[in-house]
Sequence to fold (193 residues):
Amino acid sequence: MKPLFRFAAVLLFAVLTVPAAEAQTITSLFEFAQSSDAAKWQIVNDGVMGGRSSSQASIVKLDTGEDAMRFAGNLSLENNGGFASVRSRPSGSLGLDSGETIVLRVKGDGRRYTFNLYTPDRRTAFSYQMQFATTAGQWTEVKLPVDRFVAHSFGRRMPNMKLTPSQVQSIGILLGDKKPGPFEILIDSIMVQ
Fold:
């Protein structure tokens, strides 16, 4: 065998047998395996500011036999309202790192939702946010790079605030698309890779 062909054969063997350096571990942030998992989440709607939106979160059984969290309700613009949200109860650092990606598996209603990261900042209505779209009636995988979340306070961008991922203690999903009416999103899993 000529040296060039031998080199090519060895290189091809090495590429096919060595695991990819980019292979990442996937870790579960939240699981929805039993009805008691709903107690780890809380509803925060525009009622805190006089609005009239309503929502609830519950663990439901899917057709596949698996469980998911159902976040559903009615968005109202009355009384200067316009948002409904569910968020995990703070329980210390979630262990996020720069460069990681949050991966959601959701079945939505075609509306745009906002995923929130909460830190122990004392400012009112403060979070790091990223929007994501859903497709009505279809399961989709949503990937949200941690480094792309932008600080918001009372719905306004605060571009000079930088997220320190290790300080994130809670996450949430918010609907505030200014379209009144019923909504529903199912969350099958929330992972980090």
